[in-house]
Amino acid sequence: MAKPTATKTSSKTTAAKESRSQELVKKDSLPANINLAEYAGAGMENTDRDSFAIPFLAIMQKGSPQVDKDTDQYVDGAEVGDLMLTTSQELFKDGEGANIIFCGYRRVFLRWAPRDSGGGFKGEMPVEEVAHARAQGTVKDVEGKLFADNGDLVRDTRIHYILVESESGAWVPAVLSTSSTQIKKSKMVMTQLDTYQAKDGNGKAFNPPSFAHVFHAETLAESNDQGNWRGWKFSRVGFVSDPDVFAQAVAFNKSVRGSEVNVDYAKAEVGTGEAAEEEGKGF
Fold it and tell me: 103-137, pLDDT tens digit by residue?
């Protein structure tokens, strides 16, 4: 799944992890005397889109509480530069990264209360609403950032709906959020997806769907005069080759287009480091 990299752990630690993983597989094996497949999906009959929490694929920054052992949000083993799925807290180590598939996209403006007043998510604003507010003067550009007339930060945010290849080999639906300096990374990926050409069986060129491609996501050190942080790096790996994975990507794309995916944007700030590049520090 991940790119080869020099390991930072000792052989003893690696062996211990492998032993725990093997033990987990033994404990999590299907029971031989119970036909669980007969009851596939049972117990989830009355769920809707608000019943589930889709994770964010988050970058661990210097100020992320998940890397601070003195906070109650600390995640064992989390380090600056790692990627993490926020619901399962699965880590993808710095230098290794994760394979992802881009299944959908949405641009939105997220409104955040000023930190000196407690901070927090205040809701989303469609692109058209922000354009109207700017024309009316209720949202203004101050040194390259947008602020509402009450001081709320109005952050241009590019939301990517992705599948992430987990350590188990399963592909997990998630959200990847970019803002501020990372918007250019989003634009680069979207341009690559929009201009990629393949040829069908008759030799005719066509533009494959975004979810036909596997990309590798990792982090890079970045900085400006305000500080330093970790940003995104995306590299195309190749086409999706597994029919089951492609079918899952098609289904996720359909759910996104049908507005069936509920994203808790309040979680976008915690642990993702989205504003780290704006203020030179993490969360």
Answer: 999 999 999 998 777 788 889 999 999 999 999 99
Give the H or E element holding residue 233: strand 227-239
Cα–Cα distance for residue pair 24/27, rounded to 1 Å: 5
* Distance linking the first and last C-alpha atoms of the chain: 29
Domains in the chain: boundaries: 61-104+161-279
The token pair that represents 256 in the structure block: 């996104």
Token pair of 17, please? 């992890």
Residue pair 181/231 in contact by the 8 Å Cβ criterion: yes
| 3-class DSSP string for 152-193 | CEEEEEEEEEEEEECCCCCEEEEEEEEEHHHHHHHHHHHHHH
163 in Cβ contact with 100 (< 8 Å): yes
Please tell me whether residue 213 adopts helix, strand or coil conformation.
strand
Reported as a single tens digit per residue, the pLDDT across 156-215 is 999 999 999 999 999 999 999 999 999 999 999 999 999 999 999 899 999 999 999 999
Q: How far apart are CA 245 and CA 79, in angstroms?
A: 30
Q: What pTM, to 2 d.p., does this model score?
A: 0.79
Query: Mind listing the pLDDT tens digit for each residue in 38-60?
Result: 877 687 676 555 555 689 999 99
* Distance from C-alpha of 279 to C-alpha of 116, rounded to nearest angstrom: 14
Looking up tokens 């020099």 gives 6
